[in-house]
Amino acid sequence: MKLLKVLLYGFGGLLLLLVVAGVAATLFVEPNQFKPQIVKAVKDQTGRDLDIQGDLALSVFPWLGVKIGPTRISNPTGFGDQPFAQVEEVDVRVKLMPLIGRKVEADTVSLSGLQLALVRDAQGRGNWEDLIASTADTAVPADVAPSVEGDGFALAGLVIDSIAISDALISLDDQQSGQRLAIRNLNLETGAVDLNRPLPVEARFAIESNAPALTGQISVDGTVNMDLSQQRYGLGEGKITFDLAGDAI
């Protein structure tokens, strides 16, 4: 389940980046003056280029909110000029007081127009692997409680009321095996995110694959169980509906 792990790393890093940007921006009138610092921080940490094309919009009360327009992050060297990820809009709101105790308590986290392009080259190197390594190197210290840790991964005091992803595209191009997979028009909503409890999920998306060859629609209405310490993930109670066609069906 490396893909799920990649998404957790990426989402956790993005959330932390937005919170830091928002806290800093509350001290000044114009939050967009922090764009160069945010871009530099991402470059220093990951070696990748962050391009914030839209404006940073800030709200302070009763939630500290940060809204970012069109944004993209580059691929690592050797994977071409196509962005690794881009999003049309990100909207995050967090409570102010828990931040003092190094805890993130967020309202609904919304991502609109997400495009994530995963690539494995002919040598078997994935364009997400450097992000995992850089995140593991800066994991939250063990003395920051409460935390969930495993294989270098740590989140401290993370509470999210829900996650909403709309009109997303996630693609995988495995140049080593020749497999290509695309999840299109992904719309996903979750319940409250608690890493110690099953996560309610509703999702609808179209799927295209060449190995096996199939196309169609999939909908999920149920729960996802996650045990990060044991690296175990699975579907709990719920229903999955398939409407697929292809040589393998």
Outline: globular
Count of helix runs: 4
Residue fraction in strands = over 45%
β-strand number: 15
The run of helices and strands is HHEEEEEEHEEHEEEEEEE
Helix content: 10-25%
- Given as residue ranges, the uncertain stretches (5+ residues, pLDDT < 50) are 138-155
Radius of gyration using CA atoms only: 18 Å
| Structural class label | alpha+beta
The N- and C-terminal alpha carbons lie at a distance of 24 Å
Which oligomeric state applies? single chain
Look at the structure and give the mean pLDDT.
80
- Main β sheet profile: 13 strands, mixed
Descriptive report:
20% of the residues lie in helices and 47% in strands. The chain is an alpha+beta fold and 249 residues long. The longest helix is centred in the first third of the chain and has 24 residues, at 2-25. It is globular.
Brief summary of the model shown:
The protein has helices at residues 2-25, 35-46, 97-100, 129-137; strands spanning 50-52, 56-59, 64-68, 71-73, 85-87, 89-94, 104-112, 115-120, 147-150, 153-156, 158-174, 180-190, 199-210, 213-227, 232-245. By secondary structure, the chain is an alpha+beta fold.
Please write out the topology.
Layout: H1 2-25, H2 35-46, E1 50-52, E2 56-59, E3 64-68, E4 71-73, E5 85-87, E6 89-94, H3 97-100, E7 104-112, E8 115-120, H4 129-137, E9 147-150, E10 153-156, E11 158-174, E12 180-190, E13 199-210, E14 213-227, E15 232-245
Parallel strand pairs: 7-11, 8-11
Antiparallel strand pairs: 1-4, 2-3, 3-6, 4-5, 5-8, 6-7, 9-10, 11-12, 12-13, 13-14, 14-15
Helix pairs in contact: 1-4
